[in-house]
């Protein structure tokens, strides 16, 4: 079958890999003009994602992730308050993205091509790129939390704001004296205060290096936000554009950066505030819950954040994207879905949607539970 994927981030790339492996003609259309770079921070690489990468390439745990051995909770003065085991390997969005890209033939990915809509009939789907249209057997929507394709299918549905935001940043390990970061290296370090949670851990270098001194610190600072005007201000970039859910690195307004640094100096332990102060391009993400009413609509399938957006606390975003891709490929195996049998394709997608939506419900529910345990989440 000919399958068009809208969106070339991790979910879209993972789906292209699995669908390509079983013989489908897969093309990714990514609206960005060039390969994505620096679009996200650290990610926890869980077992399902590791198995997926190892099945389709040569990337093993040691090559793409930095292990953390303990979870250290520190108080306002920086003293150790609690010490717990921590076994999650942490990678970076860039590293996982680059790993997936390297496994796909370059001609599979088309940059500067935004899917603007679709129409479908019993025999296929017409995918629209502005005034241009391409015919396909299946369209996969992997266009993120604010999915335009999901909005076309379910115009009355919108993700719900969870009541808190995450300031985020990445800073080079080499920017600090060894003594200044000695208590942070090899640990996940956390600090909790009323209505906020800060965490920091090491991730690979931008080029994937794990060498000491070449790695980077990834930090996240979750803070409750109960004022709609403040939320709007956080999501307004330096050009004055208001964004739906996040602002990429380097695009925060000067006022937002000043606010972030002032808060860090006032509220964080010095060992953590130094990370914020040294970050050249912090960014911000508003936390939303999203569960599409269905993951399929005829010959259109929704995956990744377009289908369901998990809260970061579950540390399952990359793993869920991989499982979305694997399960979709299993539903569309050539012996199960013949492109000449329209009813079969639509039926298989409907069955996949119902099963996958039920599977992610547990993860979706776990996010608010974890947030509540940290004192996070007060909807506007």
What attributes does this structure have?
single chain, 32% helix, 380 residues, DhpH_subs-bd, DHP_3-monooxygenase, alpha+beta, FAD/NAD-bd_sf, D-Amino Acid Oxidase, Chain A, domain 2, FAD/NAD(P)-binding domain, 2 domains, 9-stranded mixed β-sheet
Structure notes:
Pfam families: FAD_binding-like (PF22607). This protein is α+β, with helices and mostly antiparallel strands. The chain has two domains: 2-46 and 94-159 and 290-373, FAD/NAD(P)-binding domain (3-Layer(bba) Sandwich); 62-91 and 160-288, D-Amino Acid Oxidase, Chain A, domain 2 (2-Layer Sandwich), CATH 3.30.9.60. Helices cover 32% and strands 28% of the residues. Strands 5, 6, 13, 14, 15, 16, 17, 18 and 21 form a nine-stranded mixed sheet that branches. Strands 8-2-1-12-20-19 form a six-stranded mixed sheet. A hairpin with a 2-residue loop joins strand 14 (187-193) and strand 15 (196-203). Helix 1 runs parallel beside helix 4 (93-102) and helix 1 (10-21) runs parallel beside helix 10.
């Amino acid at each position: 079958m000919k399958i068009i994927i809208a969106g070339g981030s991790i979910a879209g790339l993972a789906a292209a890999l699995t669908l390509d492996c079983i013989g489908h003609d897969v093309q990714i259309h990514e609206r960005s003009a060039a390969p994505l770079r620096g679009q996200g921070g650290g990610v926890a690489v869980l077992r399902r994602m590791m198995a997926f990468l190892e099945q389709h390439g040569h990337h093993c745990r040691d090559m793409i992730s930095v292990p953390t051995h303990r979870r250290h909770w520190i108080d306002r003065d920086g003293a150790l308050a609690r010490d717990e085991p921590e076994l999650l390997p942490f990678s970076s969005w860039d590293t996982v993205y680059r790993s997936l890209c390297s496994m796909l033939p370059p001609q599979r990915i088309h940059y500067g091509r935004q899917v603007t809509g679709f129409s479908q009939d019993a025999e296929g789907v017409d995918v629209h790129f502005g005034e241009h249209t391409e015919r396909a057997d299946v369209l996969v929507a992997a266009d993120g939390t604010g999915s335009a394709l999901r909005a076309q299918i379910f115009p009355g549905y919108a993700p719900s704001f969870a009541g808190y935001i995450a300031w985020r940043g990445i800073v080079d390990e080499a920017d600090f004296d060894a003594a200044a970061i000695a208590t942070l290296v090899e640990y996940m370090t956390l600090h909790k205060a009323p209505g906020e949670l800060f965490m920091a851990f090491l991730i690979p270098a931008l080029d994937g290096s794990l060498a000491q001194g070449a790695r980077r610190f990834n930090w996240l600072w979750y803070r409750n936000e109960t004022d709609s005007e403040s939320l709007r201000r956080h999501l307004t970039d330096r050009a004055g554009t208001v964004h739906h859910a996040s602002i990429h690195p380097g695009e925060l307004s000067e006022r937002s950066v000043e606010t972030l640094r002032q808060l860090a100096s006032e509220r964080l332990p010095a060992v953590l505030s130094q990370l914020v102060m040294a970050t050249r391009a912090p960014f911000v993400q508003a936390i939303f819950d999203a569960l599409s009413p269905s993951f399929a609509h005829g010959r259109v399938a929704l995956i990744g954040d377009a289908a369901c957006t998990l809260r970061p606390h579950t540390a399952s975003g990359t793993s869920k994207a991989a499982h979305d891709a694997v399960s979709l490929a299993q539903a569309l195996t050539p012996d199960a879905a013949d492109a000449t049998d329209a009813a079969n394709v639509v039926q298989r997608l409907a069955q996949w949607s119902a099963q996958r939506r039920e599977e992610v419900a547990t993860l979706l529910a776990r996010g608010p539970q974890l947030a509540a345990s940290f004192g996070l989440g007060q909807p506007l």
